[in-house]
Specification:
Chain B: It is a multi-pass membrane protein. Chain B: It is found in: Cell membrane. Chain B: This is Hydrogenase. Chain B: Its main location: membrane. The complex is a heterodimer of chains A (466) and B (234). Chain A is mostly helical and 466 residues long. Chain A has one domain. Chain A is 77% helix and 1% strand. In chain A, strands 1-2 form a two-stranded antiparallel ribbon. In chain A, strand 1 and strand 2 form a beta hairpin. Chain A is globular, with a radius of gyration of 21 Å. Chain B is mainly alpha-helical and 234 residues long. Chain B is 78% helix and 0% strand. In chain B, helix 8 runs antiparallel to helix 9. The longest helix of chain B is centred in the last third of the chain and has 29 residues. Classes of the chains: A mainly alpha (466), B mainly alpha (234). Chains A and B meet through helix 4, helix 5, helix 7 and helix 8 of A and helix 6, helix 8, helix 9 and helix 10 of B.
């Protein structure tokens, strides 16, 4: 019986992986089509793939494949819980894809709110106090935050209707971006301000970020990887669409001020809370806030170089964070704790797992050869070139603090002698291979974007909007 | 329908809509809060119906009926059922007391008088913020736009200051009512597909929050937000 059960579970895991691979395959196909022929639409004007959405879809597919292949399995203590987990992860992948492919800003909002609902269940999959608390905070803060984004969308719709855009097209992104110059500036300013606040909550940006450490700390490891690696970037990509409209309607100053302020505040909070962190999953969560704030800073700078760096940062961070969260999930199973203080000498005790975690953290620290190094270098160069040296300089100081905190905490976990002499723990090839593949991919991105170069350039053109 | 009558009815409906939000802040009994919330749903449906009748767009009347069913019927029903769900038998001897404290907002972060004062300030704020919105296209409907914004802000205030899980849910729903009102007053509602999707999302969100409330009762023996202190930094 047990063997049969494990086999069925294996089949379901294969189905999850197949789902992620399908997203990745569709993204690859679309990448070819979009690079050759420009944007593709489907179902009337409901779905639309341009270079930016294909780039995000690639990130969703790659990170999901990696996280579902490498992560410790979902709950397997109870068949119903395991089935629910599978259904929710499938649905999460579908809504993430919808969120990047929808052309209608209203549908983008619906998809992003749907991800909140789905992940709330995934976060609260165990009924412990900590899980229920994390799920409640997540659901309440994100729903309220994203409601503000809906209000902003409604105001933008009002401005579009008053600018003479017919009802069916008034939330259609290409139409809005094309005719943004005719939108009323005051209403657009209010609307985009609310959207930055609302989608910023979902992307883990201050001031509505309080849910993030609890949620990433309690969700199953692959779900944390998906939330940190792609869900936050997908929400931010939604925000980028509004930024394009705002930049055309109001000039770049408004969104630049808004995003720079948000980014520096988030970075300061993340750096402050990383110091003295005692839980390694929360440590990774604050590192996500740090990286999202750099992505927001890239969007604030907004030049083509900054936009490329930002998109590269999204993909590189997604891959590195997926490896880090999956390795942390395996570590949690191995040591049954998430306290940094209780983990010592991991490299000696579990060499493969320790090495994977070490390399992922090195990538997150922004060291070469990983993709995040290239992205951060690009951001700094673009920032100084665009005359935002003060903002980038401030960010670098905060980044150095975060660097020191993250580096010290991880080094303490990895180095030294294990507390008790135990035989080395093996990770197993099935989990180690995807982790290795993720790290290699992240390193390759730092060296060259290879076949993705053309796609990245067109996506950066769309995101830059100028 | 004459223009004067339309304006008066619209103002009346909007006034009732705003008043309901303020009364929610004033009340402490969760059951009464839910009842007032249902009445607010009726006022919202009336706003949509009035706009539909005035503009001769009969499909808006169908949307108004849908809104009424969802926001005055289904959502309050769901919240009420979560309210009457049996409390976990954590203290079997004090079952009655447990019930009473569950049904009342006993210790809001801000007391009732200060809450009402804040509601007044938030309404003033929304009138100030909404000025460009009204100036863009002044009609009787857009002049009432600040009311929608005031309800959104009051909902957010409820969400932040109330310490009972279900009062927070009502705060979230007030925000959502306010946003729907803004959509109707500003542009006679968003396209149908978006309206349907948003309503569906809100319904699911309330269902999820209800399930989480049940789990919270099982794990913490109550639904006080102040009990949620497992996860903190130091």
């Amino acid at each position: 019986m047990r063997g049969g059960g494990a086999g069925r579970r294996g089949g379901e895991e294969a189905a999850l992986l197949l789902s992620a691979l399908t997203v990745l395959g569709c993204a690859a196909g679309l990448a070819v089509a979009v690079t050759r022929h420009g944007p593709v639409t489907a179902y009337g004007r409901l779905l639309r793939a341009d270079a930016l959405s294909v780039w995000m879809l690639l990130a969703v597919g790659a990170v999901a494949t990696l996280a579902l292949a490498a992560g410790p399995r979902g709950p397997d203590h109870d068949a119903a819980a395991a089935r629910r987990y599978d259904v929710l992860v499938h649905a999460l992948l579908a809504t993430l894809s919808l969120a990047v492919l929808a052309a209608n800003l209203g549908v983008v909002w619906i998809a992003i709110e749907a991800t909140t609902i789905l992940t709330a269940f995934l976060v609260g999959h165990r009924r412990t106090r900590a899980c229920v608390e994390a799920a409640w905070k997540y659901m309440v803060i994100c729903s309220a935050g994203i409601a503000l984004a809906l209000l902003g969308t409604v105001l933008l719709y009002y401005a579009a209707r008053q600018a003479g855009i017919p009802e069916a097209l008034a939330l259609d992104w290409p139409t809005l971006a094309g005719r943004a110059g005719r939108l009323d500036p005051a209403v657009t300013r209010l609307g985009t301000g609310l959207v930055v606040l609302g989608f910023g909550a979902k992307a883990g940006l201050a001031p509505l970020h309080a849910w993030l450490p609890d949620t990433y700390g309690q969700a199953p490891a692959p779900v944390s990887a998906l939330m940190s690696g792609v869900l936050s970037s997908v929400a931010f990509a939604g925000l980028l669409r509004y930024k394009v409209i705002a930049d055309t309607a109001l000039g770049p100053a408004w969104s630049r001020a808004l995003l720079t302020g948000t980014a520096l505040l988030t970075l300061a909070l993340a750096a402050a809370l990383l110091i003295g962190q005692r839980d390694y999953r929360r440590m990774l969560a604050y590192s996500s806030m740090e990286h999202m704030s750099l992505i927001a800073l890239g969007a604030a700078v907004g030049t083509p170089l900054a936009a490329s760096a930002m998109l590269l940062h999204m993909l590189g961070h997604g891959l590195a964070k997926a490896v880090a969260f999956c390795a942390a999930g395996h570590l949690e199973r191995l040591r049954a704790t998430t306290r940094t203080g209780r983990v010592r000498g991991l490299l000696a005790e579990a060499p493969v797992l320790g090495a994977a975690l070490a390399l992922a953290v090195l990538a997150l620290l922004g060291l070469p050869p990983f993709g995040l190094f290239a992205a951060e270098l690009g951001l700094v160069r673009a920032g100084f070139a665009a005359g935002m040296g003060w903002a980038v300089g401030g960010a670098l100081v905060l980044l150095l603090t975060a660097f020191a905190a993250l580096g010290t905490l991880t080094a303490r976990m990895l180095l030294g002698a294990p507390p008790a002499p135990r035989p080395p723990a093996r990770l197993g090839v099935r989990a180690a291979l995807p982790l290795l593949a993720g790290l290699l991919l992240c390193a390759a991105l730092g060296v060259s974007t290879g076949p993705l170069t053309g796609l990245l350039a067109s996506a950066a053109e769309i995101a830059g909007g100028r | 329908m004459g223009d004067t009558l339309y304006t008066q009815l619209l103002d009346l409906a909007c006034g009732a809509f705003l008043l309901a939000a303020v009364v929610v802040l004033w009340l402490r009994q969760l059951a009464s809060i839910v009842r007032v919330f249902a009445l607010q749903g009726v006022a919202l449906a009336a706003v949509a119906a009035l706009l539909g009748a005035h503009e001769g767009r009969w499909e808006l009347l169908a949307v108004a009926v849908g809104i009424g069913l969802l926001r005055a019927g289904l959502l309050p029903h769901l919240v009420r059922r979560a309210l009457s769900a049996p409390a976990a038998p954590a203290h079997p001897g004090h079952h009655y007391e447990e019930d009473v404290s569950e049904a009342r907002e006993t210790r809001p972060l801000v007391n009732v008088a200060a809450s009402l004062l804040s509601a007044a300030l938030l309404t003033l704020l929304s009138y100030a913020v909404a000025r460009p919105l009204v100036e863009l296209h002044p009609t009787p409907a857009t002049r009432a736009l600040p009311v929608g914004l005031a309800v959104v802000l009051t909902g957010f205030f409820t969400l932040v200051t109330r310490r009972r899980a279900l009062a927070q849910v009502v705060g979230f729903l007030l925000m959502d009512n306010g946003i729907t009102a803004v959509a109707f007053l500003a542009a006679s509602g968003v396209p149908l597909i978006v309206e349907l999707g948003v309503s569906f999302d809100v319904l699911l969100a309330v269902l999820v929050l209800r399930i989480l409330t049940t789990r919270m009762r099982a794990a913490f023996g109550g639904t006080g937000i102040d009990d949620l202190r497992e996860l903190r930094e130091w």
